[in-house]
Amino acid sequence: MSHILTLGEFIIANQHNFPHAKGELSSLLSAISLAAKVVHREINKAGLIDILGPTGSENIQGEQQQKLDHFANEVFKQAMAARDQICGVASEEEDDIICFEHNRDANYVVLMDPLDGSSNIDVNVSVGTIFSIYRRQTPRGSAVSIEDFLQPGRQQVAAGYVIYGSSTMLVYSTGHGVHGFTFDPSVGEFYLSHGNMSTPKQGKIYSINEGHYQRFPQGIKDYLKYCQSEDASTQRPYSARYIGSLVSDFHRNLLVGGIFLYPSSQAHPQGKLRLLYECNPMAFLIEQAGGKASDGQQPILDLSPQDLHQRVPLIIGSANMVSHVEQLLNRSQSLEKHIEKQA
Ligand code: AHM
Ligand code: MG
Questions:
Q1: Could you give the CA distance from residue 320 to residue 121 in angstroms, rounded to a whole number?
Q2: In this predicted structure, what is the pLDDT of residue 184?
Q3: Which of 34, 59, 156, 316 is most buried (CB neighbours < 10 A)?
Q4: Cis amide linkage into residue 114, ω under 30° from 0
C-alpha cells in the first residue's frame, strides 16, 4: 500500500509555503483538528446523549443557541487558548472578541463559526466548522484589539472548514492551493484525500433559498430564470441543490462546480451570512480553487470589515457563473437608475 499522508505529515512537508516561522502553522492547524475530532465524536452521538435542541439562550444576533453550538464553541476556544501562537479569537457565538491574556506574545488571531448550520443538526443534516486565521496588527505583548480582527479577507494567512458529513473532512488553504483531508475514526487521524482541489469554471448546480424569490433584487431573479430555462448547448436547466448548511452546500459545489447565492433581499438588505467568519474564509478557499466570491459588486476578499458580526450578500462558486450574476446585477441596477432619471 502506498503511503498516505496524515494531516500532520502534510503540513510539515509543506511548511516552507507558510511565510512565517516554521512550526506555527502546524500548531495552529493541529489545534483545529484536535477540536474537530472532539466535535465529530459528539455529533456522532447526537440523538443518544442529551445534546440536541436549544440551550434556551440566544447569541448576539438574536438566534437560538443550540447545545451543540455552545459545546463546539467551548471546545474550539479551549483548543485555541492552549496554543502559544494564538492571542485571541472571535466567534459567531461570542458578542465580543476574546483576548488570551496568557498569550499576549502570540502572532495570530482566529475567527470562527464553531458549528455552522446547527439549526439542521436535530434532523441529522451535515454541519460544519469554519475558520479564518490572520496575523495580528497590534504589537506583540499588547492585548489584542478589534483591529486585529477587522482585516480584509485578502490578508488571511489560512482559512478552512471542517464538514461533519457522511465522513468528516478538514479542508484548508494557506494560499498555496486547497487541500482536503478525510478523518478515519478508527485511527483518529485526518488523511490527505483531496490534494490541490480545483473547482470547474462552469457548473450545472445553483444553490439558493428560493423561498425568498419575491424579495430578491431583479438581477438575482433574472439569473434564476436563466438557470431554469431550457438550452441544450449550455446544459440548462441547471439542477437546484440547497441543503441550508453553508459548509455542505459549498463543499458539494467546490467538488463538482456550481454557484451558491445568499443575496440581499428586501427583508435582509445585507443578506444573512457573516463576512468575517463565514464569507471571507469560503472566499479565500474558492479563489484558491480557481473560483470566485462576490457581494454582487466586488470580490468578498476586498471588502473592508466594519463590524465583527457584519453580514454581507454572498455569491460564490464557479468563476463563470459568479461573473454572470455580477453582470446581471449591474445591468438591472443601471436600468433602474436610468428609469429613475427618466421619472
Ligand atoms: P447559522 O450560522 O445560524 O447556522 O446560519 C447560517 C446558515 C448557513 O449554513 C446556511 O447557508 C444558511 O444559514 C441558510 O439560511 P436559510 O435557512 O435562510 O436558507
Ligand atoms: Mg454560521
A1: 33
A2: 97
A3: 316
A4: no
Residue 45 confidence (pLDDT): 81
The CATH architecture to which 205-342 belongs is 3-Layer(aba) Sandwich (3.40)
pLDDT of residue 335: 81
pLDDT in tens, 124-157: 899 999 999 999 999 999 999 999 999 999 999 9
314: CB partners within 8 A, 6+ apart: 260, 261, 262, 263, 271, 273, 278, 279, 282, 293, 295, 300
Residue nearest atom 17 of ligand 1, based on CA coordinates: 244
- Domain pair 7-197 / 205-342, same fold: no
Q: Put residue 234 in one of left, alpha, beta given phi > 0 → left and psi -120 to 50 → alpha.
A: alpha
* Residues within 6 Å of ligand 1 by CB: 63, 92, 113, 116-119, 209, 244-246, 272
State the closest ligand 1 atom to the C-alpha of 211, by its place in the atom list counted from 1.
19
63 is in an annotated binding site: no
pLDDT > 90? residue 331: yes
278 known ligand binder: yes
- Best CATH choice for the domain 7-197 from the list 1.10.3720.10, 3.30.540.10, 3.30.470.10, 3.30.413.10: 3.30.540.10
Cell of 301: 476578499
Note the pLDDT tens digit of each residue in 154-200: 999 999 999 999 999 999 999 999 999 999 999 999 999 999 999 99
pLDDT of residue 333: 86
116 annotated as ligand-binding: yes
